[in-house]
């Protein structure tokens, strides 16, 4: 079917706190015009008494009414018209001319609604979509609200290719030839029979025909058929992370000279294989997954899923050394999948964060049992042709993992996936603590050598002490998760190191999780590093993946991955910062307790890459551990907090930054780390050596130095076999700074969705960045574009990303400018007190 975006000409109104009846009858109250995708939540006012609390970054939910009027031409009377909503958070209900046409409860699944029985042909029609995110609490992270992904309109004749009915695989590949198997699912809604020919062409990236085929079939009235074609591509260009070669497949349904329907999609020719001896292989070459878990929001533009925003995020993660991303904890957007295909990023796409046991009072567990099969069908249909997708995850930290019924459901979901797609592998991200909760006393008794009674007494004493210390934080945390997931996170924060490893490897853990793990291809373990190596001894054929791990543990984790074939990779939590789950990684120096729903936190603050795309020091350490960076990297702990105690969770690294500009700290002590894979590193301050220390894997890829802050030049030199192998230099910037603006692209498509991200930094006259300086920056956008979002990576700041004035944070602030649908120029002006204005011109064409 012909698919086109249906994003223009919408209106939206909020009925926060009102009823669904009021939304339907009075939905035009305070109506405003929008172009989809549109995130309604990011435009809401954050308040400290928001019931969601830190889970959504203090953003409230709401009830939203979207409307659109459109003309249905007379020729549609003899066609099928289908509406696709790629993502509507949540409980979407679609009405056409006042009549209910369909809907779906899941906030992250794409779904289809047939409009045929509701349209008035040759007339104007009214489309309404009511999206209800008012049932708080329902998400453990920032969900966004409304129609935050594309809405598409699909049209085709009564004989047409089914939605997502073009399926492409590459079952046979050798050095000279690849077989491309194409399945086309046809639907004939007419009464008469149609004898058709199916013309299929495969083209390479330059548009050259690589293979073609014509198949003949009779599609009887009121039936569906599948036409299968096998084509040989000679000298195929294979898809992998380093060379993500794509092909294009186009199919036409023809009867005599009439084209009844057509469909097209891109795909890659690649072969994946998996076993405990060779690990994961792509096209015969072993690949270790350098992975990152990510949430779905795009920072300052919220959950708005614009193609360029997804592509940019994928580009930055690829540059940081990642080769795989896990969509946590829901199906990934089509836009991100397309970006991963183009850029060579592997994907683990995930079904759900919960099954039948809730983590929040109003989460998807209320619907999962009734909808999981349809959810799986939609997930697989969306992902099928994407070469980037190699893994399906059936769930995240599922509480049923330690029960026989949980294992049964895991097996059912696995079988459902395999019935739809047997070309990819399956896993489930298991949190062992949940699986053994009812046996925790016995496990801890075995580990500690104490009786359960002694441990209970000690636990009660510790709990009382924690309650006393965190009393004020508890008062602030009225909006916390009533389902208890933050309590689990807090408990996990204490269960690290040898204790966690002992628990993960305990015999009861094995007994509780074995049946669950046996129902899938790969054992996915969250924070269970103690099992990764031992699995090979107890289950020689089992494959292990660290589906979620602590970022600060990367040195140990990657050593395990490198030295064990059956351990295929590691997925850190998390590679890119995100809204919601606010405060997990914020460094509090005032006694505030992490996970205490602390206002005005809005950002998790635990990403290797911060909210606007700036790589933090741990990102460079990870790149060095991966073996991808040879130059050393200097990270300086903020000297104003030297020696101070702060709250800490195992998701946090260090409160450091790559800067040697610390006005007011002259003569004060400062801690410095130099990250390197070299044998040794030497640190120089203004030409004077501060010593040479061991680095490399044996030293945890880091050497620590202490000195007193002195402005000037800080230089790290790395040595291999006594010879200089690399350098990194930080220089003190002058106090007087100017605005420097870098646009990631100057030319935009006039499609109403393209973006340019403009990053503002503060630099002195010699071009040195001053990350300590703070300026209040104002942006103005004129012409053929609009301001989609503006803000910094500050995890605790007040204000809205719709504001046009923001203070820099660690020297940066960023604007996202969205193209309109008409060609023209966009003038973007940045101003700040004491600085010359900077004007950037963009072209929309």
TrEMBL record:
Keywords: Glycosidase, Hydrolase. One of its GO terms (molecular function) is hydrolase activity, hydrolyzing O-glycosyl compounds. InterPro entries: Beta-gal/glucu_dom_sf (IPR036156), DUF4982 (IPR032311), Galactose-bd-like_sf (IPR008979), GH (IPR017853), GH2_Domain-Containing (IPR051913), Glyco_hydro2_dom5 (IPR040605), Glyco_hydro_2 (IPR006101), Glyco_hydro_2_cat (IPR006103). SUPFAM superfamilies: (Trans)glycosidases, beta-Galactosidase/glucuronidase domain, Galactose-binding domain-like. Residues 667-723 form the DUF4982 domain. It comes from the Bacteria. Residues 280-458 form the Glycoside hydrolase family 2 catalytic domain. Residues 166-270 form the Glycoside hydrolase family 2 immunoglobulin-like beta-sandwich domain. Residues 741-840 form the Glycoside hydrolase family domain. The keyword Phosphoprotein does not apply. Belongs to the glycosyl hydrolase 2 family. This is Glycoside hydrolase family 2 protein.
């Amino acid at each position: 079917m012909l698919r086109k975006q249906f994003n223009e000409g919408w209106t939206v109104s909020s009925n926060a706190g009102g009823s669904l009846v009021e939304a339907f009858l009075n939905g035009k109250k305070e109506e405003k015009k929008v172009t989809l995708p549109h995130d309604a939540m990011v435009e809401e006012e954050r308040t400290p008494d928001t019931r969601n609390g830190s889970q959504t970054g203090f953003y409230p939910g709401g009830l939203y009414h979207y409307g659109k009027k459109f003309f249905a031409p007379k020729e549609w009377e003899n066609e099928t018209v289908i509406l696709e909503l790629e993502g509507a958070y949540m409980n979407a209900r679609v009405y056409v001319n006042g009549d209910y046409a369909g809907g779906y409860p899941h906030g992250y699944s794409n779904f289809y609604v047939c409009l045929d029985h509701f349209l008035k042909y040759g007339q104007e029609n009214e489309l309404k979509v009511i999206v209800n995110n008012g049932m708080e609490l329902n998400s453990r992270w920032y969900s966004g609200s409304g129609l935050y992904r594309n809405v598409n309109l699909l049209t085709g004749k009564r004989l047409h290719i089914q939605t997502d009915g073009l399926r492409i695989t590459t079952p046979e590949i050798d050095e000279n030839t690849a077989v491309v198997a194409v399945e086309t699912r046809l639907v004939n809604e007419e009464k008469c029979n149609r004898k058709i020919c199916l013309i299929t062409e495969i083209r390479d990236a330059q548009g050259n025909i690589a293979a073609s085929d014509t198949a003949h079939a009779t599609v009887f009235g009121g039936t569906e058929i599948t036409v299968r074609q096998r084509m040989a591509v000679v000298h195929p260009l294979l898809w992998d992370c380093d060379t993500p070669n794509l092909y294009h497949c186009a199919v036409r349904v023809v009867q005599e000279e009439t084209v009844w329907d057509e469909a097209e999609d891109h795909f890659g020719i690649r072969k994946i294989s998996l076993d405990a001896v060779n690990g994961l292989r792509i096209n015969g070459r072993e690949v270790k997954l350098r992975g990152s878990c990510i949430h779905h929001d795009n920072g300052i533009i919220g959950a708005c899923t614009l193609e360029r925003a997804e592509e940019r995020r994928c580009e930055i993660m690829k540059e940081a050394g990642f080769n795989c991303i896990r969509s946590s904890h829901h199906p990934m957007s089509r836009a991100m999948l397309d970006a991963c295909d183009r850029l060579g990023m592997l994907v683990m796409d995930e079904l759900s964060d919960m099954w039948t046991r809730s983590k929040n009072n109003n989460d998807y567990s209320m619907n999962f049992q009734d909808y999981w099969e349809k959810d799986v069908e939609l997930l697989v249909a969306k992902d099928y042709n994407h070469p980037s997708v190699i893994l399906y995850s059936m769930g995240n930290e599922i509480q049923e993992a330690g029960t026989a019924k949980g294992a049964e459901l895991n097996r059912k979901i696995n079988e459902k996936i395999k019935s739809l797609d047997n070309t990819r592998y399956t896993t489930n991200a298991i949190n062992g603590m949940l699986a053994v909760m009812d046996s925790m006393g016995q496990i801890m008794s075995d580990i500690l050598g104490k009786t359960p009674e002694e441990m209970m007494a000690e636990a009660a004493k510790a709990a009382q002490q924690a309650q006393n210390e965190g009393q004020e934080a508890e008062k602030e945390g009225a909006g916390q998760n009533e389902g208890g997931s933050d309590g689990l996170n807090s408990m996990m924060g204490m269960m690290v190191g040898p204790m966690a490893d002992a628990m993960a490897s305990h015999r009861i853990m094995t007994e509780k999780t074995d049946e669950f793990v046996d129902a899938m291809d790969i054992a996915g373990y969250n924070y269970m590093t103690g099992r990764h190596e031992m699995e090979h001894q107890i289950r020689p054929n089992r494959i292990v993946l660290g589906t979620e791990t602590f970022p600060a543990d990367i040195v140990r984790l990657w050593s395990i991955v490198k030295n064990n074939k059956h351990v295929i990779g590691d997925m850190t939590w998390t590679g890119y910062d995100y809204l919601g789950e606010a405060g997990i990684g914020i460094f509090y120096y005032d006694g505030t307790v992490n996970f205490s729903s602390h206002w005005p936190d809005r950002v998790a603050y635990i990403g290797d890459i911060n909210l606007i795309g700036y790589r933090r020091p741990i990102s460079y350490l990870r790149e060095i551990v991966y073996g991808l960076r040879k130059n050393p990297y200097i990270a300086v702990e903020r000297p104003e907090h030297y020696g101070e105690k702060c709250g800490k969770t195992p998701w946090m690294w260090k409160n450091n930054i790559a800067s040697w500009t610390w006005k007011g700290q002259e003569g004060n002590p400062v801690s410095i780390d130099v990250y390197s894979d070299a044998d040794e590193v030497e640190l120089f301050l203004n030409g004077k050596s501060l010593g040479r220390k061991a680095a490399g894997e044996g030293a945890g890829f880091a050497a620590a130095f202490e000195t007193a802050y002195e402005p000037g030049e800080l230089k790290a030199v790395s040595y291999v076999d006594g010879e200089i192998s690399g350098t990194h230099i930080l220089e003190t910037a002058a106090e007087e700074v100017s605005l420097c603006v870098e646009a990631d692209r100057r030319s935009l498509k006039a499609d109403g969705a393209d973006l340019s991200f403009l990053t503002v930094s503060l630099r002195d006259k010699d071009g040195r960045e001053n990350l300590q300086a703070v300026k209040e920056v104002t942006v103005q956008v004129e012409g053929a574009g609009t301001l989609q979002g503006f803000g910094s990576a500050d995890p605790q700041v007040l204000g809205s990303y719709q504001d046009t004035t923001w203070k820099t944070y660690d020297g940066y602030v960023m604007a996202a400018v969205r193209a309109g649908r008409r060609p023209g120029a966009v003038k973007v002006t940045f101003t700040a007190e004491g600085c010359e204005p900077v004007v950037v011109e963009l072209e929309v064409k």
